């Protein structure tokens, strides 16, 4: 049985194919480049995944920083804890 035929059977059984992985990696790479305004060179899958992890970590740091800043602003404005909880829930 050919490799191609084997892959198509794997696809129908719910397993992801090599082509699907390639497509997903390309989409992920393009999203990273749009977010970072980087070059449009093809990168290895490992590099794309490393960049993705780094980008996600930076987003987590940004969320933490913004959350801390929101807490500071709410405290400075004298907002009660009940009101602060309502305001925070609007951002979730």
How would you summarize the topology of this molecule?
Layout: H1 3-12, H2 18-36, H3 45-76, H4 81-90
Report a brief summary of the structure.
With 92 residues, the chain is mainly α.
Q: Write the element-wise H/E pattern from the N-terminal end onward.
A: HHHH
Which outline best applies? elongated
Number of helices: 4
State the major sheet. none
**Rg estimate, integer Å:** 22 Å
Uncertain regions spanning at least 5 consecutive residues:
1-11
Question: What's the pLDDT, averaged over the residues?
Answer: 80
Overall structural class, as computed from helix and strand content, comes to mainly alpha
The share of residues in extended strands comes to: under 5%
Percentage of residues assigned to helices: over 70%
Counted up, domains total 1
How far the N terminus sits from the C terminus, by CA atoms, comes to 51 Å
Query: How many strand elements?
Result: 0
Give a quick set of tags describing it.
elongated; mainly alpha; 4 helices; protein dimerization activity; 92 residues; transcription; 77% helix; 0% strand; disordered N terminus; PRE; HLH_DNA-bd_sf; single chain; (wild Malaysian banana) hypothetical protein
């Amino acid at each position: 049985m050919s490799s191609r035929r084997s892959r198509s059977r794997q696809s129908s059984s719910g397993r992801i194919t090599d082509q699907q992985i390639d497509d997903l990696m390309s989409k992920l790479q393009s999203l990273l480049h749009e977010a970072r305004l980087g070059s449009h060179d093809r990168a290895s899958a490992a590099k794309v995944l490393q960049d993705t992890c780094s980008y996600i970590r930076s987003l987590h740091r940004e969320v933490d920083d913004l959350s801390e800043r929101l807490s500071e602003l709410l405290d400075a404005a004298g907002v009660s804890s009940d009101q602060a909880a309502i305001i925070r829930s609007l951002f979730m």
